Prior knowledge:
mainly alpha
Amino acid sequence: MSLMKSNRTFFKLWLSQIFASFGDSFYDVAIVWHLVETTGSALLAGGIAISGTVGRLLGSSFIAQKVDLWCTRKLMFVTAILRGFMLLIVAVLIGYVRLPIMVFYIISFTTVFLNACSSSAQRKSISEVVEKEELVNANASFGVSFSFVQITSWALGGVVVATFGVIFALLINAGTTFLSALLIWMAKWKSMISEQKNKESKIQIVEGIKLIHGAKNKVQLIVIVEMICIFMMGFYWAAFPLLIDEISNAVGYGLQGAAFGVGCLITSVYLARSKKIKKLGLAYVLGAIIYAVGAIVSASIPHIAVFIFGVFISGLGNSFWTTGRQTIFHLSIPTEEVGKVFAIFDLFTSLFLIPAWILGGYLADTFSPTLVMMIVGISMFVILMIVLQNKPLRSIEAASV
């Protein structure tokens, strides 16, 4: 990856996200599995995702008004420090006090709120530290780090949680979060501040929606497609922990995350090493279709090996899907304004995920998690095949954006 060698600022930014994501995976395995084991309910365990989604909703609403007006590097550093201290305090408290489930919901809300504030800044920072012709490579490189983390930390996280418990997983998360903050502080880059700094902050969300509506390269259509897929995947994500609890254990839960990471890694490395992705729009849509195929496979037979294979297929598509979307956003929206667009995208995502998590958990408890997951996979596949027929979208080229 020549970009890593030629751009040391980008390398430090990239490395900081490896540490952050590594610890977050331990957190995800620990909290979700703890609630699945203690409640035995997809709906109650889904409360951790619902509270996190509310945190993302409020965090995105807040940061959409501020991200293009503040220094992205300082914003990422402060949120990482706050999150690290919070995780450290919670880990210590758990060792001395039996915390009720509601406390875990509060933890989830707070951590995701801080992550939402940092996430928009992190995605904006990519276009601040690399040239436009390197954006596909840069976004794919972040996909590689995400994939590497998925492979190692999810499998290891399942073993750690099963062996040492939730406290140890939270301590690991706190440590990696502080390391991430240190690397962000060491990286030096100039933030591009919006010229609208002196306007009322409440206008920023409206301005962001206008940017999405008026952007070229079918950005408006992409946002609509994403919201439909996110809503359906909320049902899937609410149901699948209950299915894993029926067919495996915490190690199996960790292994499926690792399998997803392997799939992402294969396609992320390909994208990061590619000099040019000509049909960016086509790669985006096909990636989403492959993701849906994996969802169908994972629900086809209630066996952990089949589930892991399906998740692996979804991982293969995920890198094309997310890299395509993010690169089209970067290239279609001015850098000094793109932060609010990412925040508004997260805001819309949260609005669609909250009812999907609740309904998905209820349906999985009432009927069958396998049935819910299968319906989601088939529905996504059909809708995306229709989207594939949109010639202007699939004809978007990286070189012409």
